[in-house]
């Protein structure tokens, strides 16, 4: 009987592998047939990556610092590598579509979910863990995932304008208690150490601050990839290196890492610009947010756009 059982298991395994491969081919073929706007919406709705981190990251302060260079808040959903590759393969048409999508985002209004977003929303789908519940018409961690993954320098003007709209919406809501909170995706779980429980409106304002800081961080990260010297000479980079080196000296495991290969084998990220291993996400270096630092970040991004023509931009090698 055992040979028969083994044969049946092997047959079922082969069948499952063939069905999975066929499913991947069908999914890829469907993606190629979609218009770029549809493909982006599909990926934001079902990004493919899910990572529920049980350990809370660094607690957020009410002012929310600027992360260097990455997310301020862990999200469960992220865009998986294969889906980024699909977008990268169609980058020339995806970038203009993303620009139009970003320009249409209004942080003063709650998003209107499309029929496809609603049909795939958590708790309405038999596989809720695969569905983000995020709309393409709101700023989200997934949108910043796409921008970073595509190394989308072309979107810097659109992102600068979006960050300005979000900052205005935040200020308006801070000044007027009757005004609605700034609207961004509620796609994270802010961890705040304070005695007073935040109201729903205060939580929305907090998430909007998180996203506004992450917008600045994402844009600075794109410019940094180009090794733009004024940014590498700035307070942002000096703080990043000083904090990262301090963690390196304080952690025996990090101190043993001297190359990208060492980092990968030990399960750490490695920064190729500073040539330093990176402590686990959620504990990246930060700078306290001030209006002066916001202005300086925007100035550096604008300076890059004004002085480095697109033909000199270098798209990092795809992994």
Give, in order, the helices and strands.
HHEEEHHHHHHHHHHEEEH
* Low-pLDDT residue intervals, each spanning 5 or more residues: 1-25, 117-128
Binned, the helix content reads 40-55%
Please give the order of strands in the largest beta sheet. Answer: 1-3
Shape type: globular
Terminal-residue CA separation: 47 Å
Q: Please give the largest β-sheet.
A: 2 strands, antiparallel
* Number of helices in the DSSP assignment: 13
Strand residues, percent: 5-15%
Radius of gyration: 21 Å
Task: Give a short overview.
By secondary structure, the chain is mainly α.
Walk me through what this model shows.
- With 319 residues, the chain is mostly helical.
- The chain has a domain at 30-226 and 287-312.
- The protein has helices at residues 2-33, 36-45, 81-89, 91-103, 115-119, 141-149, 156-175, 200-225, 229-232, 235-250, 252-255, 260-266, 291-307; strands spanning 48-50, 66-67, 77-79, 269-271, 276-278, 286-287.
- The strands form 3 sheets. The protein has a two-stranded antiparallel ribbon with strand order 1-3.
- Helix 6 (141-149) runs parallel beside helix 8 (200-225), helix 7 (156-175) packs antiparallel against helix 8 (200-225) and helix 8 (200-225) runs parallel beside helix 13 (291-307).
- The radius of gyration is 21 Å and the shape is globular.
- Residues 1-25 and 117-128 have low confidence and may be disordered.
């Amino acid at each position: 009987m055992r040979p028969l059982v083994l044969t049946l298991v092997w047959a079922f395994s082969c069948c499952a592998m063939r069905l999975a491969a066929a499913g991947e081919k069908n999914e890829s073929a469907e993606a190629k047939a979609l218009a770029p706007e549809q493909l982006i919406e599909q990926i934001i709705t079902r990004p493919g990556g899910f990572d529920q981190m049980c350990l809370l990251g660094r607690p957020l302060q009410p002012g929310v610092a600027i992360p260097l260079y990455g997310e301020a808040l862990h999200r469960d959903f992220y865009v998986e590598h294969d889906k980024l590759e699909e977008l990268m393969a169609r980058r020339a048409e995806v970038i203009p579509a993303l620009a139009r999508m970003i320009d249409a985002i209004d942080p003063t209004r709650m998003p209107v979910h499309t029929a496809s977003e609603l049909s795939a929303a958590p708790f309405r789908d038999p596989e809720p863990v695969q569905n983000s519940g995020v709309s393409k018409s709101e700023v989200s961690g997934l949108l910043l995932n796409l921008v970073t993954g595509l190394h989308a320098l072309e979107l810097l003007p659109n992102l600068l304008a979006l960050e300005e709209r979000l900052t205005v919406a935040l200020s308006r809501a801070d000044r007027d208690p009757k005004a609605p909170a700034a609207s961004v995706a509620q796609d994270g779980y802010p961890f705040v150490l304070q005695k007073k429980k935040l109201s729903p409106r205060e939580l929305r304002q907090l998430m909007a601050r998180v996203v506004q800081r992450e917008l600045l961080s994402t844009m600075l990260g794109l410019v940094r990839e180009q090794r733009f010297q004024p940014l590498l000479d700035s307070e942002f980079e000096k703080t990043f290196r000083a904090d990262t080196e301090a963690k390196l000296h304080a952690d025996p495991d990090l101190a043993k890492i001297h190359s990208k290969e060492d980092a990968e084998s030990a399960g750490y990220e490695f920064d190729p610009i500073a040539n330093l291993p990176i402590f686990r996400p959620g504990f990246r270096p930060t700078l306290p947010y001030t209006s002066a630092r916001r202005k300086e970040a925007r100035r550096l991004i604008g300076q890059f756009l004004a002085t480095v023509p697109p033909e000199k931009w270098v798209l990092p090698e795809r992994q």
